[in-house]
Amino acid sequence: LTPLLPHIDHRNRGMRTRLGCLSHKSDSYNDFTAILPDKPNRALKRLSTEEASRWADSFDVLLSHKYGLAAFRAFLKTEFSEENLEFWLACEDFKKTRSAAKLASKAQRIFEEFIDVQAPREVNIDFQTRELTRRNMQEPSLSCFDQAQGKVHSLMEKDSYPRFLRSKIYTDLLSQTQRRLS
């Protein structure tokens, strides 16, 4: 019984953290210090309305912009689904792995954190994709997460991204950049 207690305590602590966040989460950001990397005030001054508007052109444009990525991450946190973006970013980083020795350990870490059933930050993928990824883990390669990453990208693009564009986070950010111009 004793070995189970830390596991149970960890789960309770995680639940308390999630529930505690409910009172702090908001779909509105008048203070962008929480979402912009580096020095937020300087970052917001450098972010043009045109750049922020371009995020609405396509999901990939949003993901390729440092501040767009930060704003989208903040939005996903309000929806408790930031694991999707974190998984996608982990896969992007994984694809840059050049060391064969690191490949297997990085792959295992990503699998255990995001793909495995009951993973701490399990992403929502179908059974076939999960099983294909599990088989790919037998001989990890730079492409072993491609299908799972594609599914998560598609899910974010079709589901979260349109909501982000309508969110108060995005509209507040846009209006703050526009106000700076006037």
TrEMBL record:
Domain of life where this protein originates: Eukaryota
Q: Where primarily located? A: membrane
**Membrane topology classification:** Peripheral membrane protein
Q: Keywords assigned by UniProt?
A: Cell membrane, Cell projection, Membrane, Nucleus, Signal transduction inhibitor
Q: InterPro entries of this UniProt entry?
A: RGS (IPR016137), RGS_RGS8 (IPR034949), RGS_sf (IPR036305), RGS_subdom1/3 (IPR024066), RGS_subdomain_2 (IPR044926)
Gene Ontology CC annotation, any one: nucleus
| SUPFAM superfamilies for the chain | Regulator of G-protein signaling, RGS
One Pfam family assigned to this protein is RGS
For the biological process aspect of GO, one term held by this record is: negative regulation of signal transduction
Localization per record: Cell membrane; Cell projection, Dendrite; Nucleus; Perikaryon
Q: Which SMART domains match?
A: RGS (SM00315)
Q: Matching PANTHER family, A to Z?
A: REGULATOR OF G PROTEIN SIGNALING, REGULATOR OF G-PROTEIN SIGNALING 8
This protein is called what? Regulator of G-protein signaling 8
Annotated organism of origin: Eolophus roseicapilla
